[in-house]
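Molecular record:
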Amino acid sequence: MIERIGFMQGRLSPLVDGRIQAFPWNCWQGEFAAAEQHQFRLMEWTLDQERLYDNPLLTPRGQAEITHLRQKHGIEIASLTGDCFMQSPFWKTGGPESTELKNDFRAVARACSAVGISMMVLPLVDNGRIETRAEEDVLVDALQGEAGLLKALGVKVVFESDFGPVELARFIDRLDPALFGVNYDIGNSASLGMSPAEEIGSYGHRIVNVHIKDRVLGGTTVPLGTGNADFDAVFAGLARVGYTGNYILQTARAGDGEHAVALCRYRDMAISWIERYGA
């Protein structure tokens, strides 16, 4: 059970410039030891567009260090949240900029494969949200063109989206299930007022990764259990579709700075929901 519950990189480190989520440049190595200390076995890497190629994931030396730390502390890194793609979406640009951003996508995919990351979360939210069918077609065409590379690398692209249930089911059906799936974000769905039963009933068979967080309706991330997320409905729905993938704590940061204490408490809450419903 505990091996399926991981944390978003940075959640065991101080905030970076007050942001709830950013790559922890000054603490990233130390998070492996902290994760082991607090009995976490799973981490999701986070990658920003700023200083993209300085990130250790994108350098040979950094990849070697990541592999060493992962093995030393017994930490699996199965997935990556590509905030870089949301910050600079190639499906919303054209010309040389689009070409450059697509090259970034390929470089990130190769880097993931080099350290054993098998899923890249591509956020279609905020700056990366799909606003027109033309943007959707550009994205789908581009990703289908990368199918051979993704298959060779053993990397799957999973989408986090603000589409409604019917639209997301239609969208994901356009793409090969062997290479593309859905990242279900509990908090984002709560903020959008979505029905977990309708969402999971529409595309649950394509969910391959889950972000656990809570948000208020139309608002921001809050501590688990204090927002509008219906965790009972979510975990019951995931159990119904036979979900067996990972759960990543993308939870609120601790107001008192005790981030590890908060993260362990949230893990215990997640375990109780999973055990209750067998998800």
About this structure: The first strand starts at residue 5 and ends at 8. Residues 58 and 108 are 7 Å apart (CA to CA). The domain at 2-277 is CATH 3.20.20.150 (TIM Barrel).
